[in-house]
């Protein structure tokens, strides 16, 4: 067998024949790749993907550092701060209203999604509109800037619901409740309130009532408070939209501040 021979470079350095053979094969392989690229019509320049900027030390960027732009990823906009929408203990605390003491709500027993909060508006309606989504058991007060205040509500039992577009004709504090004849027929014990039940903690309309009119006519339906906070999120009413008393007072203050009649969408 032939003894491997060393090869002398022009610089005077020597390398063993085995290393020379490897280097020679690498060069020949590179020439072969270039020949194929030329034959296929591609550019003879071999472009490698960028590995990112070189660190000041001259080394490669640390593993795990992503230098790519975020592209179309959009940040979630921050939710506004409203002094009337704070923590649950404050929102649902006991309060005195027109001389009537409204008891605190044990909000821990109310599902979180039915407590008052600010959300990104899902309705697409104009600011200053009330939107009731029956399937969700939510009422939205649409605000400027793409946000809404969301409240939990109770809705009518099957067969008693109303839906459509209308407007809040007027509102009342601690309204008188007069049961309709159809309700008295179902519950004769209510006959004592034929002339109206005065406002108070036991009144089914609660602390506030918003009267829904369509084309100038009373629909008979209301958005109102209720002493029965445990019915929020259920189908329990005779068709009206009921709210926690603390929530309906908050909504009432916003409706009263509106310069025009407030449109309402129930769907």
UniProtKB/TrEMBL annotation:
GO biological process, one term: cell wall organization
Keyword field contains Ligase: no
GO MF terms, alphabetically ordered: glycosyltransferase activity; peptidoglycan L,D-transpeptidase activity
InterPro entries: LD-transpeptidase, LD_TPept_cat_dom, Transpep_catalytic_dom
Record key words, sorted: Cell shape, Cell wall biogenesis/degradation, Glycosyltransferase, Hydrolase, Lipoprotein, Peptidoglycan synthesis, Transferase
Pathway participation: Cell wall biogenesis; peptidoglycan biosynthesis
Domain L,D-TPase catalytic as annotated: residue spans: 128-265
Assigned GO CC terms: extracellular region
Entry keyword annotation includes Cell wall biogenesis/degradation: yes
Active site: 224, 240
Pfam families assigned: YkuD
Family stated for the protein in its record: Belongs to the YkuD family.
UniProt name for this protein: Lipoprotein
The organism's taxonomic lineage, starting at the top: Bacteria, Pseudomonadati, Pseudomonadota, Alphaproteobacteria, Hyphomicrobiales
């Amino acid at each position: 067998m032939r003894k491997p021979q060393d090869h002398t470079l022009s610089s005077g350095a020597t390398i063993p024949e085995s290393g020379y053979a490897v280097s020679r094969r690498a060069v020949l392989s590179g020439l072969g790749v270039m020949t194929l690229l030329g034959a296929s019509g591609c550019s003879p320049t071999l472009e490698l993907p960028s590995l990112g900027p070189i660190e000041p030390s001259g080394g490669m960027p640390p593993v795990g550092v992503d230098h790519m732009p975020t592209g179309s990823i959009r940040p979630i906009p921050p939710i506004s701060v409203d002094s009337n929408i704070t923590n649950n203990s404050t929102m649902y605390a006991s309060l005195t209203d027109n001389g009537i003491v409204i008891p605190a709500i044990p909000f821990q027993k109310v599902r979180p999604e039915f407590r008052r909060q600010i959300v990104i508006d899902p309705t697409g309606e104009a600011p200053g509109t009330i939107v009731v989504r029956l399937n969700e058991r939510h009422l939205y007060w649409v605000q400027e800037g793409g946000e809404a205040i969301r409240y939990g509500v109770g809705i009518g039992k099957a067969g008693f619901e109303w839906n459509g577009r209308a407007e809040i004709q007027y509102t009342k504090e601690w309204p008188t409740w007069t049961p309709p004849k159809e309700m008295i027929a179902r519950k004769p014990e209510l006959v004592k309130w034929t002339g109206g039940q005065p406002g108070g903690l036991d009144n089914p309309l609660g602390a506030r009532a918003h009267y829904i009119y369509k084309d100038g006519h009373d629909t008979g339906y209301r958005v109102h408070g209720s002493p029965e906070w445990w019915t929020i999120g259920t189908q329990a009413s005779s068709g009206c939209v009921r709210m926690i008393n603390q929530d309906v007072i908050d909504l009432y203050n916003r409706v009263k501040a509106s310069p025009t009649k407030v449109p309402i969408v129930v769907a």
